[in-house]
Amino acid sequence: MSQRVFKLALTGLAAGVMVSANADGVALPAYQSSSDWFTAGSEKVVEKADLSRETQRAKNVILFVGDGMGISTLTAARILQGQLAGGDGEENLLSFEAFPYSALVKTYNTNQQTPDSAGTMTAMMSGVKNKAGMINISSEGLRADCASSKGNELNTFLDLMEITGRSTGVVSTARITHATPAATYSRVPERNWESDDGLTEEAKSGGCKDIADQLVSYSYGDGVDVILGGGRRHFLPSEEGGKRQDGRDLTTEWLQRYEDSGEQAVYLQSGTELDGQDLSSTDKLMGLFTSSHMSYDADRAASGSDEPTIAEMTESAIQVLEKNDKGFFLMVESGRIDHAHHAGNAYNALHDAVAFSDAVQAAVDAVDLDETLILVTADHSHVFTIAGYPTKGNPILGKVVTNDGSGAPEEAAAQAGDGMPYTTLGYTNGLGYADLGDETDADARYASAADAGRKDLSAVDVEAPGYHQETLVPMGSETHAGEDISLHAVGAGSWLVQGNIEQNTLFHIMTRAAVVSSGK
Fold it and tell me: Of 268, 288, 335, 473, which has the fewest beta carbons less than 10 angstroms from its beta carbon?
């Protein structure tokens, strides 16, 4: 079998020195391409290669990441979506669960059994696993240490797509500088360096740049073409309500970058503006719709906040990117699934997962799958459980109601050993119980202390938006979990998604399907 070899015209792309590139191959720094993680991931994809199928190349690649969307979240969201449509729910499938190819993915970081998003997204985007908290810095670096990051920067799949002339886009319901979206375009030893106010003096004197600055000054290709999400505060100076201490307005700098390019660059701040924008004549699009993270989908709908949905952002991004005949790469993150889980609020986590499924379907409807690879995955799981023998069709957000299978029509609310009812959904650790009624913002839970342990839920509406599930172990925030997550694929090159893989293998699936980092 003919294998592809990585071309290594090494002058250090990640170190900031451009290298020659062509449609068949792109140079990567030696410490990245010779990493054991990198070579093992490449070999794994080669093992699955079927050259008879490789006439179908992916002109476009869309990577969807449901942050914190573990298997239990998928199951519960699938049931909720089915029940919202009037069914029992169990037979339902989320849009991407019907994709023809799937795999299980191992998520650990090099220093943690249970990972964080910086390390997991670095693995997906660079082909190299690393430590928690660091974005596209190899494990040779130290977290929050600017000096140690020098010479250990990793290049990303987005970099490779830009260098080979494709268009690129990043969409997120979180801050666009948050760990997952940031890992598509930036290199920092500390995920919290979202703007210069977070940089240490050592980092400033050592020449490390914050994440927002790196996005606006991104130098590969012609820059990131579409940027849609939250986090406006990290682009604006403090005197204008932002976080920046350097006095810079990065939104203005981004627009100025394209003034003499002949391309139309547009900056937006609301869903209404996005809906009214003529995308057919838009070449560069930045939309920062909130100061921090965007609203939970249920909160956005209830409050009437002028923010686009994740599906609307996805559709808009594709309309801008697909005008490039060479193709495009788009990463879409549903970041707030993770945040609702951290708050111990299944209501918002599941509703955001349903909205995420709608965004995937919008992409499927918008592209030609003969030339587009769509991947849907998570970065990690959460300690979120479905338990208690509820009867089929029981409201997934509700209290457990059982049927003993005897044929008797009576069903009864189940009681635990303490004589009190309990919910189907729960968390192993976290803040624990809270009843905030119709309050949809899960983050409001952080206003009070952890309240772990059992509560009498007899008179509590556990299906209300503001209900936060009970937990066993009290913690200031519910934690990630370490089990495998799923990967779903459809379109050009999707057959490469099989079996149980390391997370860094996703990079090699994308590069092989799109033919950007390897040649015959």
Answer: 473
